[in-house]
Amino acid sequence: xxxxxxxxxxxxxxxxxxxxxxxxxxxxxxxxxxxxxxxxxxxxxxxxxxxxxxxxxxxxxxxxxxxxxxxxxxxxxxxxxxxxxxxxxxxxxxxxxxxxxxxxxxxxxxxxxxxxxxxxxxxxxxxxxxxxxxxxxxxxxxxxxxxxxxxxxxxxxxxxxxxxxxxxxxxxxxxxxxxxxxxxxxxxxxxxxxxxxxxxxxxxxxxxxxxxxxxxxxxxxxxxxxxxxxxxxxxxxxxxxxxxxxxxxxxxxxxxxxxx
Length: 260
Ligand SMILES: C[S@@+](CC[C@H](N)C(=O)[O-])C[C@H]1O[C@@H](n2cnc3c(N)ncnc32)[C@H](O)[C@@H]1O
Hints:
Layout: E1 6-7, H1 10-23, E2 30-31, E3 35-36, E4 40-45, E5 50-54, H2 67-74, E6 80-83, H3 89-96, E7 101-105, H4 108-117, E8 122-124, H5 127-130, E9 137-142, H6 156-165, E10 167-178, H7 186-197, E11 204-211, E12 214-215, E13 219-222, H8 226-233, E14 238-244, E15 250-257
Parallel strand pairs: 1-12, 6-7, 6-9, 7-8, 9-10
Antiparallel strand pairs: 2-3, 4-5, 4-11, 10-15, 11-12, 11-13, 14-15
Helix pairs in contact: 1-4
Bound molecules: S-adenosylmethionine.
Residues 11, 58, 83-86, 89-90, 104-107, 110, 126, 143-146, 149 line the site of S-adenosylmethionine.
């Protein structure tokens, strides 16, 4: 169809070009065939809202991180699964600290970038599929807003059950979320209202990502308040034991596996 993107590994292509621009190695997008062009991740929401975000931060070293990222990695202990590892910025620091870390991602291109940057232990796929591999973890990291992978009321039980199936006794999840409800922007408050009318959580975003001619299929990504998270976790194998909201509207949620 005219104007529709080709479905492909948006994150993979985007991170590959971001790495090329950062290092000067390999083919990279150039302005006028000469100057490196910054790589921009295009995020489309199903109400027509479009946002562009520079992708360079996916490669950022710890000196450029937000304080909550540091607090999150400081809490990782034991065998750690970095869920949605991206370009590996978190996994690289954990590796350096001697924490046994595995990066998991659905994007083959992202994993390729991680490998080239030195992340040693990588898994391609979803948490659900990884259960069959037999590996088990003490810490799960959902950083870079990846609490969003919980998607909404329908997916949450399955996602949390898959994490529990991958968990050792006493395991923890450290997840970075954003409370979406502080805004007065009518574009967002109207979207939240429309979602609720359709039986969805207010911040249950329906998104697709685009880069150059590529697009992802539409997917749900949850931006929720700590109260909504508590309710999603309530009947799961996990307990919400802590919400660190020192950097409002961002927060770090800690979930602990219930005793069996
Ligand atoms: C917003 S980025 C965060 C990257 C990284 N955690 C960081 O903080 O820099 C989201 C990452 O999650 C990956 N991802 C998306 N859906 C996933 C899924 N269902 N399972 C595992 N990874 C997924 C994407 O490919 C992407 O690399």
